[in-house]
Amino acid sequence: MIIKVCGMRNPENMSAVAALGIDLLGLIFYPESPRYVQEYIPSYAGILPDGIPSSMKEVTRGMVPKRVGVFVDEMPQTIITKVYNYELDYIQLHGHEPRTTCENLRRTLDPDIRKGVKMIKAISIRQPQDVDLYKEYEGAVDMFLFDTKCKTVGGSGEQFDWSVLDRYNGTTPFLLSGGIGPNDAARVKEFRHPQFAGIDLNSRFEVSPAMKDVEKLRKFIREIRDE
Predict the structure, then answer these.
(1) Counting beta carbons within 10 angstroms of the beta carbon of residue 60, is it exposed (0 to 12), middle (13 to 18) or buried (19 or more)?
(2) pTM value > 0.85
């Protein structure tokens, strides 16, 4: 199961979370988010290019998390600049971006700027019909992320009814997001869908916005992975 931890910003906290052996680490480039990565911090250089600092590598079980940049209706040139500066492996589009934006970004970035860059399209769910939005993007992205529709963009801590994903008949794998917390390990393990690929964790594992509780994450990940 893919485990993505999103809304990271503090370099030391990022290092500790990366050392848990997660798969994807999310940086939010949306100015209205309390987890907004506002500026490039020099100490990120010790984390982002190789995933984690060399001093931490011996405790990562050989896993280096891929870097995901989260954008909301952002200008393509800004996205391209962030991909280059932060060496992003994934672009997560969390707004109302059309299919053509996904296709044009991939063509622009791969292979000249970021070879093999992957695309995630978030789809916000309030009612069952919202799931059907995936049809616009099928074949244009590498993964979907189904999240809870709310006034904020992600990180609300609110869950949607996962059973509505029975409507999803696509062939693209997806991440389950929206309010997954420390007590949800059993529920996640019981969830079944042929395209279910993993989970996205954020606000319910925080001590404050963008600062994750490493011990809560460690315990949850061990439960998920039956360790």
Answers:
(1) middle
(2) yes
